[in-house]
Amino acid sequence: MLRVTIIGAGVSGLACGIELEELSKEKNVPLELNILEAGPKPGGTLSTLEQDGFLMEEGPDCFITEKPAALELSKKLGLEGELIRTNPTLKQSFILKGTKLYPIPEGFYMLAPSRLMPLMRTPLLSPLGKLRAALEPFVKARRGPGDESVGAFVRRRFGREVLEALAQPLVGGVYNAGPDDLSVAACLPRFREMELKYGSLLKAMAARRLGVSGRGMSTQVSGARYSLFVSFKKGLGALGEAMASKIPPASLWLQAPVQSLKPTEHGTWEITSHGRAQEADAIVLAIQPAKMRPLLGPLGPEWDKLLSAVPAHDSATLNLGFRLKDVGHPLDGFGFVVPAREKKLIVGCTFASQKFEGRAPEDCVLLRAFLGSEAVKDIKSQGEAVILERVLGELTPILQIQGPPMFHHWAVYEGSMSYFRPGHLDQVSLLEEKAAETKGLYLAGNGLKGAGIPDAIAAGQDAAEKIIQNLKLI
Q1: Do the strands 252-253 and 31-36 form a parallel or antiparallel pair, or are they unpaired?
Q2: CATH topology of domain 2-42+247-310+420-473
Q3: Is residue 214 classed as helix, strand or coil in its secondary structure?
Q4: How confident is the model at residue 271 (pLDDT cuts 50, 70, 90)?
Q5: The pTM is what?
Q6: Which residues contact 206 (CB under 8 A, 6 or more apart)?
Q7: Which fold is adopted by the domain 48-88+312-418?
Q8: Average per-residue pLDDT in the chain?
């Protein structure tokens, strides 16, 4: 009998459990599975609420299809028919400058443009900023070893203005961290690869647009065609629910925080939750690295040092329902992001009812504001009501709001978003080596090699495969 305990019933933990159930049957290995979740429900940040015809996401609202794990699991769970793409009639998102929204220059993706002329026309950059960006092909490629921050990378190639006006809000909206705190190699490796291959991002993006592929840059998509970002008709909560339904009810323990874990003298692990100890041949920590520290730190100072190198920020989302007539902006895009230099409380806002169908009644609008760690501190110290008024005060002139919201809903997550500092991949390699040396211990979660849903699923599945592969060692 193989006894496995998974700590965390978020996306990684559930994916690991599903894969273990399948592999144990395939390999004819009797399995005793326990998944311990500190919270009241499985699925982690995947949570969708319905209210008066509105469909609200508390956590992420979509996943990327370019990485296959989430799409393949959706098919396996029978959800393929529920997949929906982003609104095909909308082709743009915006960046805030002052109180006005400007379209992101056509072809600009995260750090770099694929076309120079739209960048030359945007009012988001000054003439000098545009000139500096146009000189990018003449900037010598950095070919030395070692990692680099996203901020240093963009400043070096395109200049300060492109970083502050475009790259910072776009990257910050994904990773909830400043560009100087983020690793290019861990967060956006494709751009580093493009620099090395072509010597210039402008040249690389132009080659990609013309159909010349580089390493990891396939321009062809085979099989079913999907939008780059997809969700489900009933929201991403449907994925969490479908995953949880594949776990035997007796294996899923909710509101069961783990107080401690320790190796036993006979090569197993003892896990204590609510004062009750259980024994396992293998444990999987499917939680943020910052949340692994209290459990693994007592096992030795090296664990604590390695895990402290992967910090996590707090974050919050605020869903706001409005009558359509009370919002003067045409909402002719997916939403907007806010540069740090604008000094706003919100870091971005999605026009949720525009982005995906079925998110609001026909005569209503659903907006979703995003707030970072500083705003979460303010929520704790000043209260939700005060921060709500501040958020509405910021949104009102931007979106020409003329009336109060019909409702609002907060979702606050503590330590939910790991971010990858320069040197992150080296730290992860050391963590994986340390785990491999520790019998029966496996690490998963979305704070190691990726921050998205596909990354979290792949991490959980990988841990399950390693457990089965190492069965003889257990």
Answers
A1: parallel
A2: FAD/NAD(P)-binding domain (3.50.50)
A3: coil
A4: very high
A5: 0.92
A6: 114, 115
A7: Polyamine Oxidase; Chain A, domain 2 (3.90.660)
A8: 92
